[in-house]
Amino acid sequence: MARTPSNMLALGTKAPDFSLPNTVDSKTYSFDKISGTRGTVVMFICNHCPYVIHVMEGITALAKDYQNNGIGFVAISSNDVVNYPDDDPAIMKETAKKYGFSFPYLYDESQDVAKAYDAACTPDFYLFDAEKTLVYRGQMDSSRPKNELPVTGKDLRTALDALLSGKTIDTLQKPSLGCNIKWKV
Q: Where are the alpha helices (DSSP H) in 8-74?
């Protein structure tokens, strides 16, 4: 598991669409179906990465704090499940239930969605405004396993609060850091 930073997709990029199965309810979701009226958070996560596990409860709390304010949330796993069976869709469903996800947990088997978002690591976060324009990408906060900083979601929450209040979102954004996406060979 290599420590990998976000690729930092260009701000202003329009949200790539997708059509992926939800491991929880077996329905297919697109960007439009999960998008919020005021913005949308797209997260690339997985079941086994220690960086994701470290922030999982924070992710769940973040979604619950903002979903009633018009922000849509979705988590996507794009890892190769042949070589990393802990990321299998059946286990994704268990993970979503364990952490009480209030958002879909989609499986990107082809890895095309991760490529379209230029995702590099888990966790990797993207915030799009109501017009599907990328306004934030990078870390949730500076907490990492073993650095003893609390999981607060500070960076992403600051961007969400600015978006909701109509303020300018600072373009100086820090990349996320986590396990590399497990690409198929």
A: 31-34, 50-66
Q: Which residues contact 72 (CB under 8 A, 6 or more apart)?
A: 34, 35, 36, 39, 40, 41, 103
In this structure, what token pair is assigned to residue 22? 């939800």
Rounded Cα gap, residues 175 and 8, in angstroms: 6
Residue type, 40: T
Statement: residue 1 has pLDDT above 70: no
CATH assignment of the domain containing 139: 3.40.30.10
Residue 185 located in a structural domain: no
* Per-residue pLDDT, 3: 85
Q: What was the pLDDT predicted at 185?
A: 86
In terms of residue numbers, what domain contains 94? 3-180
- The answer to whether 177 and 121 are in contact (CB under 8 A) is yes
